[in-house]
Write a structure and sequence with these properties.
CATH architecture of the largest domain: Up-down Bundle
Largest sheet: none
Radius of gyration: 22 Å
Number of helices: 18
CATH superfamily of the largest domain: MFS general substrate transporter like domains
Shape: globular
Structural class: mainly alpha
Strand content: under 5%
CATH class of the largest domain: Mainly Alpha
Number of strands: 0
Distance between the termini: 19 Å
Helix content: over 70%
Length: 465
């Protein structure tokens, strides 16, 4: 086992405005993710893909996440530049890649071109995503980490909301299709995403400086030598050293992310079948179903950013573990009902549960995770946590096509019910985890209790990490 060091240092308390500006780039990154959720699979359908092909066509996300995020995390842990910082070069490069791919995506003329662009888009998303989460952990004192990660949930919901609502709104004002059959309202949504992706990240980069490493951290950075091979070795060591409860969290992630993949892949098909009465992806009714699905997904993300900051207080009062369990159960019930809804307006009611759960999924587990891992390894462990996300998605992409065809009768309603059952399983698995104690950092103790920074308090701050 390798030796990990938690370096105790004072980090300045940030205002709410500063926290929001720091997280604004997550809005643009998540707009891109929202387009993947709602618009990419319909583009596959427009280009002739069959329902059982959808999981395999979505392999890009989990595979690139599995390979790129842990590597980028370990690499960024080893990086420091006085001019560029530690994490910022990575999420700037990722944002540029996202913008280019979003601009090109609606002009594809063949299924293989769409698949290739999705791989490039996911690679860019993953390059930006992991360093951004590590940036929050680097920048905030422990007392504000919950607020920081749930600010990411807020912008996750806001970005995906705009992505989905833009599909609905552009459908009202833009008509016609490209030569390849892609509606111009889909093109408009991708163009907006191309601008948002880079613009919001630049605002965060300009407004929020990274904290320079302490002498101890610089010494630790200089001791980490080697290129990609050393980074892979560090990932292996971190997995071996992983805290027990973080390993238990992997089981929760297996169920919840398999479930979310099922929802994203089949939501437009279940809306088309149950609400618009069609299974023909070339029909006008299916185009209307895609637009309506965008509105439904936009609505659940409105719920997400509406409740994100409420979860901070609830997690502090009732415990992050029980908040996450409750949110997962709400989503399970909601999806079980959503799978049978035939009224277009009633479909918004059960999806509220998914919106609440999505806010929790994108923030609450990280509140617990950062209490389990050493501060000097935030980057590599955030990458490993992403492995816990993408491996279930990879398993789903490889297995669910066969399950869909042979066990679920290619019925999208059954896919949504399966997602509901899996979310309930995730809630059950969450009860197995022992939540780490909440310990306030030395800055918050000084600011809010008036205490001096004593050696005892410094040790408590170290334990909080």
């Amino acid at each position: 086992m390798s030796e990990s060091v938690t370096i105790v240092r004072q980090k300045p308390i940030m205002t709410m405005k500063q926290i929001l500006l720091m997280n604004l780039g997550f809005f643009g990154i998540q707009y891109s993710f929202g387009m993947q959720q709602t618009a990419v699979n319909p583009i596959y359908n427009f280009l002739g893909a069959s329902p059982e092909q959808l999981p395999l066509l979505n392999l890009a996300g989990p595979v690139t996440g599995l390979l790129i995020q842990p590597l980028i995390g370990a690499w960024s842990d080893r990086t420091w530049s006085k001019k560029w910082g530690r994490r910022k070069p990575f999420f700037i490069a990722g944002a540029i890649g996202c913008s280019v791919c979003l601009f090109l995506f609606p002009w594809v003329s063949a299924l293989w071109m769409a698949v290739l662009l999705l791989w490039l888009l996911d690679a860019s998303n993953n390059t930006a995503m992991e360093p951004y989460r590590a940036f929050i952990a680097d920048r905030l004192p422990p007392a504000q980490l919950g607020k920081g990660f749930l600010a990411q949930s807020f912008f996750t919901g806001f970005g995906i909301t705009l992505a989905n609502v833009s599909l609905f709104l552009f459908n009202l004002v833009l008509t016609g299709t490209t030569a390849n059959g892609i509606p111009y309202w889909v093109v408009g949504a991708f163009m907006l995403g191309s601008v948002c992706s880079i613009a919001t990240v630049l605002v965060s980069v300009i407004s929020t400086p990274e904290l320079p490493p302490s002498d101890e951290e610089l010494q630790a950075l200089r001791a980490k030598k080697g290129g990609p091979a050393a980074a892979f070795h560090e990932i292996k060591e971190a997995i071996v050293d992983m805290p027990t409860d973080l390993k238990k969290l992997a089981l929760v992630y297996l169920f919840q992310w398999y479930a979310m993949s099922c929802y994203w892949q089949y939501s437009s098909l279940v809306v088309a079948q149950n609400i618009f009465g069609t299974t023909d992806t070339a029909s006008e009714a299916y185009k209307q179903a895609v637009s309506w699905t965008g509105l439904i997904n936009g609505f659940y993300n409105i719920v997400t950013f509406s409740v994100a900051f409420l979860l901070v207080g609830w997690a502090r009062k009732y415990g992050a573990k029980w908040v996450h369990i409750s949110c997962l159960l709400l989503a399970a019930v909601g999806l079980a009902v959503f799978a049978h809804v035939s009224n277009p307006y009633l479909a918004f009611v059960p999806i509220i549960g998914l919106g609440i759960a999505w806010a929790s999924i994108m923030g609450v587990p990280y509140i617990m995770a950062v209490r389990m891992i050493p501060s000097t390894r935030y980057g590599v462990y955030m990458g490993i946590i992403n492995m816990m996300i993408v491996i279930p998605m990879l398993i789903q992409n490889v297995t669910f096509g066969t399950i869909m065809k042979n066990l679920l009768g290619n019925n999208p309603s059954n896919a949504i019910i399966a997602a509901a059952i899996l979310l309930a399983c995730a809630a059950a698995a969450m009860t197995w985890i022992k939540e780490p104690p909440i310990v306030r950092d030395v800055d918050s103790m000084r600011d809010f209790e008036g205490d001096s920074i004593s050696p005892k308090n410094l040790q408590r701050g170290a334990d909080a990490q």
